[in-house]
Amino acid sequence: xxxxxxxxxxxxxxxxxxxxxxxxxxxxxxxxxxxxxxxxxxxxxxxxxxxxxxxxxxxxxxxxxxxxxxxxxxxxxxxxxxxxxxxxxxxxxx
Length: 94
Ligand SMILES: [Zn+2]
Known about the structure:
Elements: H1 2-16, H2 30-40, E1 59-60, E2 67-68, H3 69-77, H4 79-87, H5 90-93
Antiparallel strand pairs: 1-2
The structure holds zinc ion (ZN).
């Protein structure tokens, strides 16, 4: 059990030292998101061949902490899940 507690404390330290230009949820930086886009577009999904980096949303800074578009839309589209995470006691989730 001790090992797991230490690992969790180590993890928390990393999460709390998150940089400003980084998604507050998944920790991706704009550069990582752009790199993933270029990688994905080597074999684009059908109908998406015309997309360029300027067409995609990367990061919003209008929220309290920066959020990437992927996390933003995941949160936005899953209010029930978010409510469950917030309202359920920790020991019922883990
Ligand atoms: Zn994110």
